[in-house]
Amino acid sequence: MRVYYYGGFEWKGEQMEIEKLTPSEITNLWNSYLTNTMAFWVTKYFITKTQDEELRKVLEYAEEIAKIEVEKSKAFLEDVNHPLPQKFDQHDVDLNAPAICTDDFTAILKYEMAKVANVVYSMSVNTSTRKDIREFYQECSKNSTELTNRFGDLIAKKGLHHPVVHIPTPNQSEKVSKQRFLAGWFADRRPLNSVEIGQLVYNFKSTEMTRTFIKAMAKVTPTKSLQKLFERGVSLYEKHLDIFQSIVSENHLPHLRTWEDQILDSAVSPFSDRLMLYKMHLLASATVGRYGTSLSIAQRRDLASHYSRLMTEVLQFAEDSVNLMIELGFMDQLPMAREKVNHLN
């Protein structure tokens, strides 16, 4: 049994003979390396800005596990002589730049990103073949779950989960007896059920965090093409929020909170254009994943139609962000299958 140590943490795995990585393992490790170099420096920036000692401690934990995951994913790739993508480093973050948001919004942002990491690491466990890599992602998943819980506890203590949505408790469970249960148009529309409410609230909160963060990026970027794309993203997500809130409100549920008042007046960008564009693309990808999950379990036809349409809109926005990344020379190309060779007779 081999024990790996880094930054005071340890995880165990059997010593394995070095072997080629599968395409899924390459993708997982590549993205882990790149994303965690970004997370490390973004978190370091927020640590320098926070005035909240409890938040600082959670951010320091986030910084530490990001450093571990960078080093380990890098080691896996280098062990098989695999090239690394261009990392994010101190040149992508200005630690001396003013704060762009409040401590409360920092906690919300990092809480949402930890939840995204939970999903990504679970998928990485499921799609990796080598035992040592699966064990690595199990440890990553454990760390991200702990981080999610620490941010969740802090957010609850600050009262940032409000309003908390509740619904009546029925006297007994019942069977669905009418086909109109699946309908969702006009007079056939039934009240939302618990799974639909949960998904709407979850999507509203995550999309609102994304909208607010992109709005902050639009405010500070010095590059017109990025500003234009960010502002388009803000408008897109605002429309989605209006749709979610209207459905929630017509079912006599609370008006959900927005966070635009948590953005500060600074016009100085703490992040490079490459980092901001990459971050925005990650947020768009996470949004597509959430909408896809909601679509798959929606039980009212109108909700399924909404999620399908909104997901298509975000996919187009994400594609345009990738095109801009390519245009600006920011995008590293993942390894590809061998090209077809045409043999001449």
What does this structure look like?
The chain contains eight helices and two strands; from the N terminus they run E-E-H-H-H-H-H-H-H-H. The chain is an all-alpha fold. The chain has two domains: 157 residues, Ferritin (Up-down Bundle), CATH 1.20.1260.10; 146 residues, Ferritin (Up-down Bundle). Helix 1 packs antiparallel against helix 3. It is globular.
Q: Indicate the proportion of strand residues.
A: under 5%
Tally of separate helices: 8
Helix content: 55-70%
Low-confidence stretches: none
The helix/strand class is mainly alpha
Radius of gyration: 22 Å
Give me the strand/helix succession: EEHHHHHHHH
The end-to-end span amounts to: 55 Å
CATH class of the largest domain: Mainly Alpha
Total beta strands:
2
- Under the CATH scheme, the architecture of the largest domain is Up-down Bundle
Mean pLDDT: 90
